Amino acid sequence: MTKRKLMEKARKFGVNPAILIIFAIAALLPVLIANEYVVRLLVSTLMMAALAMAFDFTSGYINICNFGFAAFWGLGAYASTIMVSRLSISPWFGFAFAIAASALLGFLIGLLSIRLGGIFASCMTWFVSLGLMTLANNLVKLTNGSAGLHAKALFKTTQNAPYFYVMFVAMLVVYFLLTYITNLDMGLAFRGIGQDIDAASSSGIDPTKYKIANFTISCALAGLIGGVYAHFIGIITPNVMSTNKTVEVMAISYIGGRGSIWGSLVLALILVPVLDIAKGLMEWRTIIYGVLMIVVMIYYPDGFSGLVLAAKAWIKKRLRRPDKRNGDK
Questions:
Q1: Rounded to an integer, what distance in angstroms lies between the CA atom of residue 190 and that of residue 209?
Q2: Chain segment 83-104, per-residue pLDDT in tens
Q3: Burial class (CB in 10 A: 0-12, 13-18, 19+), 327
């Protein structure tokens, strides 16, 4: 394989110098930081980044906002915890059940709601989220109700660094997979459906098929992150499916820039730690996310990624000016 082809393939997976630097720095943080609280915060940050990317895959590409997104994340957490406990298997195998359960529910909900489109599909996912949360509270024999379930730990250690690297790998899987898919013909179909579904249909694209595929993939990845989260946090309660969780993920996705996988990733790495540092504002966390999301949607819909791209274009333009002057001379 030639160097050019290798670079083209790398670009399809979203590999570029800036991303590699970010990932390299992130991978070194647990080694450089000895504070367990900070490392635990980093695990949560990676989790939110992965969830925001999975959310944006649906919202930013096929233009359907999954208001019940937390339900698929929570289902993955419960599926892994319950199956590991019932089958007495390693929690590492629980991730497969987490992915399968969330993907299956996503596929079924997709069949029922995606045809509706717009706000109707969004409301359908929200109702499912509320229903799953109610079931988790009431099926006491299976879920232990509001008391929650204890999830088996992945490692026999109290340190957070091992969990950081598990979540880091899960986040990388989400980033590389979604970036690769969006750079394929399938990604073009997703964009076409999101921008103008009628024009996409007239071009021979089957909107229903692609919407269901997109929704299923997004939910499956949410389930994966939910499974990792369950064995990291140690206890799962129905609150994991609350709408507040969806609002946080949705806000990061929208502020990061819709239709930009890397925008959600980078913004989460910045915003989540910043809001945690401002501990006095923690009670206002959801409100802050909501206000930021509204401001971005009204005044700068392209979000953080659009701002970065605009700044990059401005810098390139400024750098070209001296060359043109020299050429004129």
A1: 10
A2: 999 998 999 999 999 999 999 9
A3: exposed
Predicted model pTM:
0.90
Q: Is 76 helix (H, G, I), strand (E, B) or coil?
A: helix
Q: What DSSP string describes 157-174?
A: SS-SHHHHHHHHHHHHHH
For residue 149, the cross-strand partners are: 236
Strands (E), the chain: 149-150, 235-236
Distance, CA of 175 to CA of 170 (rounded, Å): 9
153 token code pair:
């730990």
306: Cα within 13 Å, side-chain hemisphere: 13
∠ CA 195-198-201, rounded to 5°: 105
Chain mean position to CA 173:
11
Residues, the chain, total? 329
101 and 238 Cβ atoms separated by less than 8 Å: no
Ranges under pLDDT 70 in the chain: 1, 115, 117-118, 278-283, 321-329
With a CB cutoff of 8 Å and minimum separation 6, the contacts of 106 are 72, 215, 216, 218, 219, 220
Q: Does domain 19-328 have CATH number 2.60.40?
A: no
The label of the residue with tokens 């609350």 reads 242
CA distances (Å), origin 47, targets 14, 163, 201: 19, 11, 35
Cα first-last separation, the chain: 43
Q: What is the pLDDT of residues 128-171, one digit of tens each?
A: 889 999 999 999 999 999 888 999 999 988 899 999 999 999 99
Which residues are within 8 A (CB) of 290 and not within 5 positions of it... i.e. 6 or more apart? 247, 251
